[in-house]
Structures are given as structure tokens and as C-alpha cells.
Design a protein that fits this description.
Blueprint: E1 13-16, E2 19-22, H1 36-44, E3 51-53, H2 59-68, E4 74-80, E5 86-91, H3 96-105, H4 111-120, E6 125-132, H5 142-156, H6 176-183, H7 188-198, H8 205-217, H9 225-233, E7 238-242, E8 247-251, H10 254-261, H11 265-273, E9 278-279, E10 283-287
Antiparallel strand pairs: 1-2, 3-6, 4-5, 4-6, 7-8, 7-10, 9-10
Length: 288
């Protein structure tokens, strides 16, 4: 089976992590209604979108996203129509609109997306649903959704993502190694492995040139192992809970949680000392 993330038929199967998964979606046939930059992007990336929303600054568009995404779960993509950069994430059942709102409206999701929205304006972004998950997401089947997200991340390498191993609100851990992978240049061995996933995909010369330029401009990140170890040793392990009591994630230190959540160490420490234990009005945080 092809490793390209393009499927033409409903329920087409693909392999991921040695398990057989099926893709369920209703392919949007209104590509002609999208802007040329979005249509070209989807074509270049070999993607069949479920649906795409533009003009995100309009109240009408927000309402459409909210209405369409009710009782749905799956994979979404946030696309910068100016720079062609993008972010990929997964949404549990009834969480598409929440993800859209946090990343693009309230700007409390990804810091990279937040800075891009402030620089280019929300009118220059598109919210694209790539795939719908066929079941209501729960603790038992959540890993299946993460496997699908992980496939998209490793196939498309979205440069707005910090993490390369999928993780959402059911408690799968974010690892420091995967955060750093997306910040730093990939080793030759890693590029070769990713190349196997991308085999058969065709990119336009313009996009290839932009990718090359960005790779050269990326700074090198030098981390002091002793410095990180000293910071982490001062902190106890902590656990974050969703408001419904399910575990969001476990972290070995406040430093690790801060990096993973894009939240300051001071904010986490303040929440731990407070009576409410509420962090960013989203989670409860406690020492393990």
C-alpha cells in the first residue's frame, strides 16, 4: 500500500505501526470554491480534504465550523496561506471547534501559530479537516486516533508543530526528544527514514525551494544536559488532569511540563501553590 497520505475512496485502508487502519471521510467535492493557494497546497501535498474553511475572521465562518464539527472527531490542519506553513492536530469527539478556537481565536494553543496569526492576520489562514474518525473517542480507542495523527505528522512534517509524536487529552506523554526533533535540523539518517514515507509525493519547484531556504535559516539548538538536569532535579513529577478527571499528561518536572504546554514555569508553580490547582483555566495540576 502507498504511504502517501492521499486516498481516493472511502474506507481505504493503510498501514500504520504494523496495524491496519481505515480512513473514513466524505471527500469535499467543492475544491473549486477554495482559494487557489489552498487548492494548490492540497494538490501538492496529495491530500483529499474532508472540508476546508476560509475567511476565518467572519462570524458566519466560525458558526459553520461549530455546526459542522458537532459530534465529530478526527485530524485537522491549520494552513498559513501567505507562508504555506501549517500545523496538524487531532480532535476528540466534539473538540474540533475547541481546537480551532484555542489556536486561532483565543490564541492560547500553539505559540508558533499564535505568533503567525498576530503577524499575518486570521484572514490569511484556513482551517482544514483532513479526516474524520469513525467512532466516538474514548480512553480505549484514543490510541487509534493518535496513530492516524502520527502518520500525518511523519508523512507531512508540518513545521508549525513542535511535537512529532501525537498526543492529546487522554494522557499520552509528550517526550522531550520529539519536541527537539521539530526544532532542529534532521540528521541524515532521520531524513532518509522520513523520505520513505514521502516516496511518490510530488512538490512544486516553488515549495521545494521554500523548504530548502527555511532549512538553511533554521538556527542550531545547543542544550546543556547538565543545565537541564539541574533544573529538572529541583522539581517533583507532576500530573495534569482535564476538568472531567481524565489524565491529560504526566511530566517528570515543571520544566518538562512548561516546554510541552507552552506555558511558563511561573504559571505552573503558581497553580500548584493555589487552592484551586487550576492551570490556564483548562487543567488541574498536582504533584505526582
Amino acid at each position: 500500500l502507498s504511504n502517501s497520505p492521499k486516498w481516493h475512496k472511502q474506507n481505504y485502508s493503510y498501514k500504520n505501526n504494523n496495524n491496519l487502519h481505515k480512513k473514513y471521510y466524505s471527500t469535499d467535492t467543492n475544491l473549486g470554491n477554495y482559494s487557489k493557494v489552498v487548492t494548490d497546497f492540497l494538490s501538492d501535498k496529495n491530500l483529499n480534504a474532508v472540508i476546508c474553511f476560509e475567511d476565518l475572521q467572519l462570524r458566519e465562518t466560525k458558526d459553520k465550523i461549530n455546526e459542522y464539527s458537532k459530534n465529530k472527531a478526527g485530524i485537522y490542519l491549520i494552513f498559513n496561506k501567505v507562508t504555506l506553513d501549517y500545523y496538524i492536530g487531532s480532535a476528540s469527539t466534539n473538540r474540533f471547534y475547541s481546537r480551532f478556537y484555542k489556536h486561532l481565536i483565543s490564541l492560547i494553543g500553539s505559540k508558533i501559530v499564535k505568533n503567525a496569526v498576530r503577524k499575518y492576520g486570521i484572514n490569511n489562514f484556513a482551517f482544514i479537516i483532513l479526516e474524520l474518525f469513525p467512532e466516538e473517542v474514548n480512553k480505549e480507542n484514543n490510541k487509534k486516533l493518535l496513530n492516524i495523527e502520527d502518520f500525518y505528522l511523519k508523512s507531512l512534517l508540518p513545521n508549525y508543530n513542535i511535537l512529532t509524536e501525537a498526543g492529546n487529552s487522554f494522557g499520552y506523554k509528550h517526550t522531550e526528544i520529539n519536541r527537539i526533533k521539530m526544532k532542529a535540523n534532521y540528521s541524515e539518517e532521520c531524513r532518509n527514514r522520513i523520505g520513505l514515507l514521502n516516496r511518490g509525493k510530488k512538490l512544486s519547484e516553488i515549495i521545494v525551494e521554500r523548504i530548502k531556504k527555511k532549512a538553511f535559516l533554521r538556527p542550531s539548538y545547543n542544550y546543556s544536559e547538565q543545565g537541564l538536569a539541574n533544573l529538572k532535579n529541583k522539581s517533583k513529577p507532576i500530573i495534569l488532569y482535564n476538568k472531567d478527571g481524565t489524565v491529560y499528561g504526566e511530566y517528570s518536572s515543571i520544566v518538562e511540563a512548561s516546554n510541552s504546554l507552552n506555558c511558563s514555569i511561573k504559571s505552573i508553580s503558581r497553580a500548584l501553590k493555589s487552592n484551586s490547582k487550576i492551570l490556564k483555566r483548562t487543567w488541574y495540576v498536582k504533584y505526582k
